[in-house]
Amino acid sequence: MPSFHTKTIEQILDPVAQQVSVLVVLHEATEDGSAMPDLSGQISAVNAAVQNLVKVGRDTTNSSKDAVLKQDMPPALVKVEAASNGLLEASVMLRDDPYSMPGRKTLIDGARGILGGTAQLLLVFDQAEVRKILRRCQGVLDYICVAEVIEVMGDLVTFVKNLTPGMTGMANMVSARAKELTFQVHRELLEKHLDSVKNTVPLLVSAIKITVTTISQGGQGLAEAKENRNYVIRKMSYDIREIMRVLQLTTYDEDDWAMDDLTVLKKAQDNITNQMARATEWLTDPNAAPGGIGESALRQILADAKKVADRVNEPYAGRIKQAVEDLTELTDKLADLRANGQGNTPEALQLSHAINAKLNALQKLVDDAVQDAVKNGTGKPANTLTGKMDQAQAWLANPSVNDKGVGKKAIEGLVAEGRRVAQNLSGPEKRELEQLCNDVDSLYKQLDALIRKGQGNSPEAQAIRQQLAKKLQQLQQKIEKALANQVVDSFMDPTGPLAQLDRAAKAPADAPNRQQTYESKAHIFLKHSKQMTDTAHAVAEAGSCPDKKIVGELNATANEVAEMTPQVVNAGKILLMPPENAAATENFDILSGQYRSKVEILTGLVDEATDPLEFIKASEESIKKDSEGVANAIRQNNPQNIIVGGGNIARKANRIVTVANKEADNSEDPEFVNNVQDATRQLGKSSGCS
Fold first, then answer.
1. Is pLDDT of 245 > 70?
2. Contact between residue 447 and residue 407 where contact means Cβ atoms under 8 Å apart
3. In sequence order, what are the beta bridge partners of 6?
4. What 3-state class would DSSP assign to 6?
């Protein structure tokens, strides 16, 4: 992972860090009593570079209108200059006495001071640049709310005319910032939300236009039009706020989900230690502006402390969470006072003193909590189904070992996941999974009761452990199979109901039962969309996918599809209403097109998170059932069921082809790829999908 969050900072600081490393190596190499070589040339070069950096910093400060930069830059400049002067002093001391220990210490302190001061200086400047983008984002965010009061076409024209330059400027600034970032996940988030904003602009204009048109034509369908418009405003506002949030991030613990708890705890502890000095400087300076690096450091400490609280044992977890809540409230008050020019009032001074004391207490609490976790372990179950199973089986193999309750929590989590998955099932499959959950729960409670009585190693307890281990394996298999079956059924034809809704919404005005047909198709569409999003959430929460990014995107995309679904129905309702309206058609087409794109993304994510072998096996079983149904329909001379069953078989076969081809695309084994391609071609021909 990169050391710095932007390429510019990285490019400037890397050479400085290398020079500091050279000085440290020289220092360590001469600790045996050897003479320190003459470094005056190197140090003079470093000093010249520092002086140039300081000049640029002062010029920037003098010309800037950013109050926070004017507040934070001077201390950083002083720190760098002091460190540079220390280097010069060390150079003189070591030239006069190459064995001077004070000279060596001054040398190392000065070198590290330059590195730290330069990093602080660049961070101050970088955050000022971020604030420029934030102001542009906030301007767009404020302006799009004007859409709620537009009721005539002239106002819409003015709105679009005023929005365009602001949106273009924001997009250019955010896009440039994304390219500058070194953390890939931050780049991807900015690009994702910026793309969403760009794609939503035509929808916003269309939604406003249909509202204006509806008002001008008598108001029929106005409620649906306004709901459409307000949904688009909410969506765009959310994306802009997410852009603003990501812009302010400077660190990312990309591997936290996969890391063991102790690694995450120690990382958070180190982050807190590294941020304390900046936070303390901000607290003790009553004239420090809010929003600068000092306040940012303080809030980062609180975020890291919360991360610690989520992973440590009681009573530490509760105490840390309470301390974070208290400090957040106090910090908000202090920031408000300083923003209003009241940083030197008795109330503000008392607040800063109280926060400083509580912050030091929080650091001590975090240190104690991490030390306890190192000594006694943590009690957090795994994130994935497979991880929980491993923890549960480990506890069953040796329940006398104190695992801080991880094994028990894992079993409880597996039962909860099983019951959650069962809610979306029906018939025998639902009953079997619920019964298996009840069996596991009952055996677990029996074993726990024996352990509490001190009979955890009795013959009865050993027999229960063996039964429970087998039942847990069965439960895992049932959950995975049930999820695969859900994926097969829910995503058999992801956009088919949308196509039916489209035809119903655009039926000729004189088509018989036009309204009733649309309502019927809308009901099917809503039900199918909910089925897909429920299944996607189930795969994310109860599946075995170990990739945090995929799980997060799966949940987020499912939420987007769920929010968009009723708006597609509303747009169709407006399209049905007389008189025929080109704006209504445009609005429906844009909205349904975006829905289709999101569903395709959701389908791809579900496929990535689902074991392909389980999916293909479940599809095969489902196709066999459909084939039996078709055979019965043929015997009963039921053409409707023949058509439905045959269509389902073809669609499921097509999904198998899609999933199998993805696996082949991701493989580097030519034999495997050829075998899969041959099989999918044969399947495509036999099902009519090729």
1. yes
2. no
3. 181
4. strand
Measuring CA to CA, how many Å separate 15 from each of 1, 8, 55, 180, 647? 18, 12, 19, 18, 64
C-alpha to C-alpha distance for 151 and 126, rounded to whole angstroms: 42
Task: List Cβ neighbours of 528 (8 Å cut-off, separation of 6 or more).
Answer: 490, 496, 497
Question: Is residue 218 left, alpha or beta, with left meaning phi > 0 and alpha meaning psi from -120 to 50?
Answer: left
Convert 256-283 to b/e letters by CB count within 10 Å (16 or more is b): beeeebeebbebbbebbeebbebbbbbb
Q: Look-up: residue for tokens 């995309």?
A: 557
Q: What are the φ/ψ torsions at residue 31 (nearest 5 degrees)?
A: -70, -15
DSSP 8-state symbol, 148: G
The CA distance from 411 to 117, in Å, is 51
Write a three-state SS string for 71-87: HHHHHHHHHHHHHHHHH
Residue 363: predicted pLDDT: 95
Q: Is the dihedral of CA 64, 67, 68, 70 positive or negative?
A: positive
Which tokens sit at 23?
Answer: 């000085």
Instruction: Give the pLDDT confidence score for residue 29 in this predicted structure.
Output: 67
Closest CA to 84 of 58, 119, 60, 49: 49
- Report d(CA 266, CA 259) in Å as an integer: 11
Alpha-carbon distances, residue 615 vs 134, 150, 487, 554, 655 (angstroms): 45, 49, 8, 17, 10
**Is-contact 8 128, C-beta < 8 A?**
no
Q: Which of 198-212, 394-408, 464-478, 607-621 is predicted least confidently?
A: 394-408
Find the angle CA(147)-CA(588)-CA(652) to the nearest 5 degrees.
135
Q: Which two tokens stand for residue 600?
A: 């395709």
Average pLDDT estimate for 377-396? 80
Provide the token pair at 502.
């489209």
Q: Over 86-116, what HEC string results?
A: HHHHHHHHHHHCCCCHHHHHHHHHHHHHHHH
Partners of 181 in the beta sheet? 6
Tokens standing for 24? Answer: 């440290």
Tell me how far CA of residue 171 lies from CA of 26, 132, 158, 163, 168, in angstroms: 48, 13, 20, 12, 5
Tell me the angle at which helices 40-63 and 101-144 cross, rounded to the nearest 10 degrees. 30
DSSP one-letter string for 546-567? --HHHHHHHHHHHHHHHHHHHH
Is residue 282 a contact partner of residue 295, using CB atoms and an 8 Å limit? Answer: yes
47-71 pLDDT, tens digit each: 887 888 888 888 888 888 888 888 8
- pLDDT tens for each residue of 259-268: 556 777 888 8
Q: Report residue 31's pLDDT band, with 50, 70 and 90 as the boundaries.
A: low
H helical segments located in 150-183: 153-180
Beta-carbon-side half-sphere exposure of residue 214 (alpha carbons within 13 Å): 27
Please report which confidence band the pLDDT of residue 258 belongs to, taking 50, 70 and 90 as the band edges: very low
Residue 570 has a pLDDT of 94
Residue of 604, 607, 605, 629 lying closest to 618 (CA atoms): 607
Structural contact between residues 649 and 623, judged by C-beta atoms closer than 8 angstroms: yes
**Angstrom distance (rounded) from CA 560 to CA 565:** 9
Residues 119, 180: Cα–Cα separation, whole Å: 17
pLDDT tens, position by position, 495-545: 999 999 999 999 998 899 999 999 999 999 999 999 999 999 989 888 878
Contact at 8 Å (CB) between 622 and 485? yes
Does position 93 have pLDDT exceeding 70, yes or no? Answer: yes
| Token pair listed for 299 | 């809030």
User: What pTM does this model have?
Assistant: 0.75
**Residue among 61, 181, 168 nearest 130 (CA):** 181
- d(Cα 193, Cα 168) in Å, to the nearest integer? 15
pLDDT for residue 2:
45
- Residue 28: helix, strand or coil by DSSP? helix
